[in-house]
Amino acid sequence: MCNVAVIEFFINTVVCSEFKNKRVLEVGSKYVNGSVRPLIERFCEPKEYIGVDIEPGKYVDIILPVERLVEYFASESFDVVISTETLEHVQDWRKAVYNMKDVLKKGGYI
């Protein structure tokens, strides 16, 4: 899910070098009303872009709850983690944030 304000923020602040040749994970990636994914893939040249969500849909590569990120991918697996409009849908937001931070490489961007 992605509010238009998120897309506007992305367009106004993106630094493509933060994505170029990087491994990117998007948590809560199902396309509902927009996504930054096509912008990142087209203009920022990531090495890999993986989208996870709890249900299938456009831009969902792997069906996986945020609580199982570390179990599935292992710690320090991604250079960039993106998540928009997700935390209000999880039962334990602290665990969700912890897991997103844990799959992020040291010095990565979230």
Task: Please describe what this structure looks like.
The chain is of the alpha/beta class. The protein is built from four helices and five strands, in the order αβαββαβαβ. The two termini are 17 Å apart.
Total beta-strand segments:
5
Terminus-to-terminus distance: 17 Å
Count of DSSP-assigned helices: 4
Q: Overall mean pLDDT score?
A: 93
In the CATH hierarchy, the architecture is: 3-Layer(aba) Sandwich
Number of domains: 1
Gyration radius (Cα, Å) is 13 Å
Give the class-level CATH name. Answer: Alpha Beta
Largest sheet: 5 strands, parallel
Please write the string of helix (H) and strand (E) elements.
HEHEEHEHE
Strand order, sheet with most strands: 3-2-1-4-5
Look up the CATH topology. Answer: Rossmann fold
CATH superfamily label: Vaccinia Virus protein VP39
Structural class: alpha/beta
β-sheet strand percentage: 15-25%
Principal-axes geometry comes out as: globular
Task: Give a brief outline of the structure.
The chain is an alpha/beta fold and 110 residues long.
Observed structural traits:
30% helix, Rossmann fold, 110 residues
Secondary-structure map:
Layout: H1 4-13, E1 23-27, H2 37-43, E2 48-53, E3 62-63, H3 69-73, E4 78-83, H4 93-103, E5 104-109
